[in-house]
Amino acid sequence: MLQGIFQQLRFVLLNRHLELALGVLTVSVLLQLTHSFCTYLSRPKNVRILSKPYSPLTWFKNFDFILNAPRTILRGYQDRGHAQAFAIPSLGEYTVLACTEDDIKAVCDIDEPVLSFPEAMTDRLKNYWTMYGFQVGDIDPHSSIPMRVIKVLLRMHLPVLRPVIESRIRQGFEKALGKGCRVDGYTSVSTYMLSRTVIDEMNVRIILGDELSEKPGCVDTAIRYTEDVVVTAEICRQLPSILTPVIAPLMMGYRRSMQKLADFITPVVNERIRRQLTMDTSKTYDDCIQWIIESSRTPAQRATKRLVGQTIGILMASSYQMSMTLVYVLYALCHHPEYIPPLRDEITRERHNQSEDPFKKMYLLDSFLLEVARLNPPEALTVQKKVKLPFTLPSGVYIPPGNLIAVPHQARARNPDIFPNPDQFDARRFLPKHEQQCETEAIAKFTDVSYRYLYWGPPKKACPGRWYVSHALKQVIVHMLMNYDFKLENKSDTGVFSWTTIIFPSPTSRILFRRRERSSGN
Ligand code: HEM
Questions:
Q1: CA–CA dist 33, 78 (Å, integer)
Q2: What is the ipTM of this complex?
Q3: pTM of the entire structure?
């Protein structure tokens, strides 16, 4: 019987092209209609919805969401005087945007089983297919392993890792600038590629350790892998989820970056486990692979594939947002060179003081980073959560399960009631009015979290990597400022483009670097 079905299928595929095309079209239209109807049934109530998912133009509107989501969200936020929640149909569900202080606090503070951040991320990143089978779930239900590794162990080791990070930064700059071309005494490089190379040189060492970061091809494979994940996940998001098990492996298999990365990591994991089991302490390690192994306790957590998937997951979480932030730092320094001399003075002063934490009193640097991040978030939305149980916001908006909820972070950063003169870049915005107050008042740090400034997510469960990000980015900025002069090749080439709610820096921008004559030798 099975043979008969295959023969019929073969016949249709070979001889009935027209019927086949019509069949595919009919199934697609039926799927879309069913989908629109289901989306309509689960629409949020008591809230303004910016457009209707069941209109015949839905597919075009999906394109609008893909290409213009940050602009649509900004308009929706401003139209209502920043004071009311609103909803937009995204790609198969509604995203409700919480705008009032009470709504925002509720979205930040309410978690599983009502609202879920991991589920929103799983839907988006298709972890199982893009992170070597890694899934959040029963094996480590509260993500305690990555939390301990990043929030406790990595943060604790930052002072001892400082020289290692510094040498990786130097290596990253040399590698990126080595590929540049000479222009009027400067070296011209792609701003994005420079940032990626420096950040990934550093992250690969911190996460995968000395041995792998020195292995030829490992850093480049890591860069290719994170690019592949973003492209694969975003394409799968546009298609019916039933196609993910087919499309995702095909796309991830095209350059084989995930498998190659796993091939680099697996023998190292196995060797480290062997050493742990035989109590061989002849070598010590200070990297995330080691801390993941030490933090994994149950047999399921300690399975090699799970340990490799967990490592790859952390590598992915650490990569693209950090390099995008470095691009925006470069743009800000080039567009506002007036901040370069005071930043250099602050660095020189703190070097003379030789304090244990060299960044503790670099107040301007913290304020500068807070301002760069305020105006250049990597996403238009923050605190993105999937609604798992029916949920009503304090303002009365009712959201059925299956929808998304989030805070319009980028739009809020331009709200004059929260940040006066919001469109102006002011690197001193987060500093007290008088310099003397820096010694007596609590000064804003780049790692601070608050309901007003949600760059790191919800205050009670914010990004665990923020201390590493802050520390590492400050080291990169200090290295750049003290060793190089730099300027953009074309100042107007620093725009951004968006794909759904992700905001990317322009890939065409180029930057010119030249060694400073009186380099401090950092
Ligand atoms: C500029 C760089 C970064 C930004 C802007 C950023 C921002 C965020 C945000 C907004 C969240 C979501 C929190 C939530 O809504 O619950 C998050 C989660 C997370 N981040 Fe980061 N992040 C950055 C870098 C990193 C790095 C370098 C690491 C790892 C070393 C990391 C590890 C994580 C992890 C593991 C989570 C999930 C936390 C959870 O499950 O609750 N991030 N990050």
A1: 32
A2: 0.98
A3: 0.91
